[in-house]
């Protein structure tokens, strides 16, 4: 007798959920699923998706494994090939005046396929997150405007409940619905979001060539540049040295993500209005001036913040697909192994299970790897053994992500601890020694053994 085709519902069409959709469809000749994907947003351009992210060789490998060749051909639109001799695709850490502290060994790859095939070492390619989501949305029948509010699970399957009163039945439910996942809140109510008392503000800007040239002159051409201050404050600039193709510019402009983070307690008496971008931008500039010394690096950071749009920008002058008002956000994470998991028809993937602080640039990479591992595990699905498939996925997913969340949290908290001037000399020298050691042994903290 022919078996019925099982249904998988993916709740959330972010980077992780979309990658899983493609992987399940790509493998349908081995194991066929009826796959449905829902998202609470009203459409693809509804919400800001825009900041840059680093995709490493592990994320690139899983991405290419999961997507069909027709989509893989479009990935360079989101992960453009590194510009040889102009960009260094890697991470560099500086002190608050722009002196180099750490530049871990990072393999320079020629394109995303090269990254996917890397067998030794680590690569890190700066990626347009909004474009990646756009590329991944191709041929995916997302059901938009469907906000999941919970589910009912039984021995036979799962009813997924939506805010509009509708419900859908499935054999497996995957919560790929981000840090505030309603699926996680119901499955594991005791798995809490950790708040480490840090505030971050992120914005996308189109920056003129002369500003990026000043940054590169000071700090080199790494496309992921971080500075660490004395007061628990850090800045991150992520950029690509690829001119924006828009006629309205009279000189070359480039896509840049600017990020500033500081201890939340510094905001205790501030009167910032998060619904007013001018108030937020002025506040970030005030913080930079207050926490940083007068120097070229501080001036450069301020100039990036001067470029942040205060109202919805003219699309002719704004290269990002989506725009949202800049606001303060809390730095949060979730250690998935801080509670005991019980395996059932309902599982989690990506930020829903293990939101990670951005310090090591791992969150999206791990969401994509989760999709790869889960889709492989589901190849052995049968109505009798679905629990063992999901368990196999969860064992790998939990270990890998718990390690990464804790590593990233450790670095974030270390960097966010205020130091005295003397303390900073000790800290900076320690990091410089670490730099020599990691480069001598050709070791990168995010390198995996397999
Ligand atoms: C500043 C910053 C820098 C970062 N840099 C990096 C980096 O360099 N490298 C890296 O790998 N990662 C980075 N990350 C993390 C990365 O962006 C996330 O980890 C990744 O996007 C998670 O993907 P996801 O699919 O799990 O969740 P998301 O991308 O958050 O997608 C979740 C989806 O679920 C939908 N959803 C939510 N609730 C519901 C609901 N109730 N019903 C239906 N749908 C719902 C949402 O609309 C969304 O589309 C960074 C994050 C930040 C904030």
Automatic annotation (TrEMBL):
**Which residues belong to any copy of the FAD-binding domain?**
341-381
Instruction: Please give the name of this protein.
Output: FAD-binding domain-containing protein
Question: Which Gene Ontology molecular-function terms are recorded?
Answer: FAD binding; monooxygenase activity
Instruction: Identify the keywords attached in UniProt to this record, alphabetized.
Output: FAD, Flavoprotein, Monooxygenase, Oxidoreductase
What residue intervals traverse the membrane? none
Task: Show the InterPro entries listed in the entry.
Answer: FAD-bd, FAD/NAD-bd_sf
Q: Which SUPFAM superfamilies match?
A: FAD/NAD(P)-binding domain
**Species of origin:** Rhizophagus clarus
């Amino acid at each position: 007798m022919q078996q019925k085709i099982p249904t998988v519902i993916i709740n959330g069409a972010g980077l992780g959920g979309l990658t899983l959709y493609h992987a399940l469809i790509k493998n349908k000749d081995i194991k066929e699923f009826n796959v449905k994907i829902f998202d609470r947003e009203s459409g693809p351009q509804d919400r800001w998706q825009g900041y840059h992210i680093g995709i490493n060789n592990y994320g690139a490998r899983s991405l290419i494994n999961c997507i069909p060749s027709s989509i893989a051909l479009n990935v360079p639109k989101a992960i453009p090939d590194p510009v040889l001799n102009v960009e260094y695709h890697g991470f560099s850490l500086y002190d608050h005046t722009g002196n180099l502290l750490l530049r871990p060994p990072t393999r320079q790859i020629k394109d995303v396929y090269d990254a996917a095939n890397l067998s030794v070492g680590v690569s890190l390619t700066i990626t347009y997150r909004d474009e990646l989501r756009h590329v991944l949305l191709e041929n995916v029948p997302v059901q938009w405007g469907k906000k999941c509010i919970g589910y009912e699970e039984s021995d036979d399957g799962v009813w997924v409940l939506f805010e509009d009163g509708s419900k859908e039945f499935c054999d497996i439910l995957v919560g790929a619905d981000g840090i505030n996942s309603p699926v996680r809140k119901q499955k594991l109510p005791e798995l809490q979001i950790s708040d480490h008392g840090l505030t971050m503000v992120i914005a996308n800007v189109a920056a003129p060539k002369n500003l990026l040239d000043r940054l590169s002159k000071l700090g080199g051409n790494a496309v992921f540049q971080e500075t660490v201050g004395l007061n628990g404050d850090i800045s991150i600039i992520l950029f690509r040295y690829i001119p924006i193709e828009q006629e309205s510019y009279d000189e070359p402009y480039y896509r840049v993500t600017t990020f500033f983070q500081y201890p939340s307690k510094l905001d205790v008496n501030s009167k910032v209005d998060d619904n007013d971008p001018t108030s937020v931008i002025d506040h970030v500039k005030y913080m930079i001036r207050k926490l940083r010394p007068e120097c070229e690096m501080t001036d450069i950071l301020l100039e990036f913040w001067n470029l942040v749009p205060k109202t919805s920008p003219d699309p002719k002058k704004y290269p990002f697909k989506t725009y949202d008002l800049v606001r303060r956000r809390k730095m949060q994470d979730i250690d998935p192994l801080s509670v005991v998991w019980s395996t059932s028809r309902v599982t989690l993937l990506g930020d829903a299970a293990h939101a990670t602080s951005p310090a090591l640039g791992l969150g999206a990479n791990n969401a994509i790897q989760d999709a790869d591992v889960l889709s492989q595990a589901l190849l052995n699905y049968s109505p009798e053994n679905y629990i063992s498939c999901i368990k196999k996925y969860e064992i790998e997913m939990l270990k890998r992500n718990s390690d990464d969340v804790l590593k990233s949290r450790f670095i974030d908290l270390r960097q966010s601890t205020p130091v005295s001037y003397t303390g900073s000399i000790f800290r900076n020298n320690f990091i410089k020694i670490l730099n020599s050691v990691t480069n001598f042994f050709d070791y990168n903290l995010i390198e995996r053994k397999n």
